[in-house]
Write a structure and sequence with these properties.
three-stranded antiparallel sheet; four-stranded antiparallel sheet; alpha+beta; Immunoglobulin-like; single chain; 2 domains
Length: 148
Amino acid sequence: MRTFDYTPLWRSTIGFDRIFDLLDESQRTVEEYYPPYNIERLGEDHYQISLALAGFTSDEISVTAEQNVLAVEGRKGDEPQRDYLYRGIPAKPFKRQFNLADYVQVKNASFDNGLLRIELVRELPEAMRPRRIPIGGSAEYLTGKQAA
């Protein structure tokens, strides 16, 4: 795999530190493929993450949201010793993290039929939303009064 040096970009940009940190982190970590997951866009500002967690119960899974990071962790409880001839359903502990954009919040999590679904919503504060600026006439600008 090829690595990139972001040092020249850090010297010439302001306020993009988080983006470069995410790019740098993505190069260093080896992506694990367990548990498998989907990320869906349900609407303009609505998203859903679905994780396939066969063999887990809702008590063995924890979902934590903290400062733009969503963490899903699973750990199997004590099971009776079994003699498997073939074990194709993994039950190993896992921790999967998702980096969330600013203003993205977790709204709901549900676990049904082996699928954990986490609903996310991007809620921009009113001050950050686009707003229409009325354009006044030139006479209005000069006199400070509206022309009749």
